Amino acid sequence: MKEFYTFGWYASKISPHLPKKVFQPVPSRLFGGLAYLIIAISCLVVISLLNLHLLWNFLISVVLGFSFAGLGFLGHEILHGTVVRRPWLRDFLGAIAFWPLCTGPKLWRKWHNSSHHVHTQDEELDPDAWPSLEKLAKSRLLRWVYRIPFAIRAFFAFSALTITFTLHSIRMLFYFFKDFEPKNRKVVFWQFLLPWATWIGLLFVIGFEKWLFAFFLPLLIGNFIVMSYISTNHRLNPLVPVNDPLANSLSVTVPKWIDVLHFNFSYHTEHHLFPTMSSKYYPLVKEHLKKMWPERYHEMPMGKALAALWKTPRVYYQQRELIEPRQGNICGTLGNGLDPTRIQHRKVEVEQELSHNFVDSAFKKVVKHK
């Protein structure tokens, strides 16, 4: 993909073809959240008050984990203002929905709405973007991580999806905290602290064994479900100089019933075009995207996207390609030569030193195409 267009450019082309109702909030989405909330509270009460067999507690934990993820997807939608528009009500409901995942509404809107959406796949400005080879060379931690063989690293990377959302949320708190006005910092801090205090307090009330099933295991499951989507949203796409959703985003396909349970979170390109539109209407947006720009639009089944993530490196080389630094293997990104059904790597030769000041012997070279 050689030319880029802004999300506003695409939106201006599609908007005239959409009914006016799609730009209105959809409060009825809260019924789904209420169902998840009732299920979650019921599961917590059952685990806390009854002495069930471990197998039953495990099965209830799975239901809780799915509920945590479902509430997180709804919280994402609420905090974009697509369910209710009043700021205080939006933040209150968003806080409840994100309570299981321990993320506060003010931090989320700063991190996700104001930074990720505005600067999607910008290496410097998008807090969710993966690093380039140059950034890798500047980080001791990343250089250490990339000494680990690729197969082992891929296994642990996928295992880490069970904790990634939680860890990244904590990192974002420290990353953005100084950007908030002093009067808002206390609010951000308490929005972060209160959910954790609730869950840690539950530990002392019901005991460690029940707490594992009531919170810890569901949190791992919720993390994994949420990150299975988030990891496919952009990580197969290139870094871009222009925030072009058809270049930097991927929509995945899942069974319809899963879309219902997950509030159409799979429609990610559509979301980046119209972040303040209820995801209820994203199938309609998708129809227009596939009619107007079929050669630019990226979608694939969730399973295929996750398999492609397993097989490809996560370090960017010259923005449009991905490189495995140890072996010098390079593959394309979506729109730039990547075929998810047949991922091919090509070797590159060492050309010159990237830096002799801070890069160790394993990363002292920059690669160049043969």
TrEMBL record:
What superkingdom heads the lineage? Bacteria
Cytoplasm as a keyword?
A: no
The species this protein was found in:
Thermolongibacillus altinsuensis
Q: Which UniProt keywords apply?
A: Membrane, Transmembrane, Transmembrane helix
Please provide, in alphabetical order, the Gene Ontology terms of the cellular component aspect for this entry.
Answer: membrane
Q: Report the Pfam families cross-referenced here.
A: FA_desaturase
UniProt protein name: Fatty acid desaturase
Q: Which GO terms describe its biological process?
A: lipid biosynthetic process
Q: Which InterPro entries match?
A: FA_desaturase_dom (IPR005804), Fatty_acid_desaturase (IPR012171)
Q: Which GO terms describe its molecular function?
A: oxidoreductase activity, acting on paired donors, with oxidation of a pair of donors resulting in the reduction of molecular oxygen to two molecules of water
Instruction: Specify the taxonomic lineage.
Output: Bacteria, Bacillati, Bacillota, Bacilli, Bacillales
Domain Fatty acid desaturase, first and last residues per copy: 56-300
Q: List the transmembrane segments.
A: 30-50, 56-76, 144-167, 187-206, 212-230
Task: Say if the entry is tagged with keyword Transcription.
Answer: no
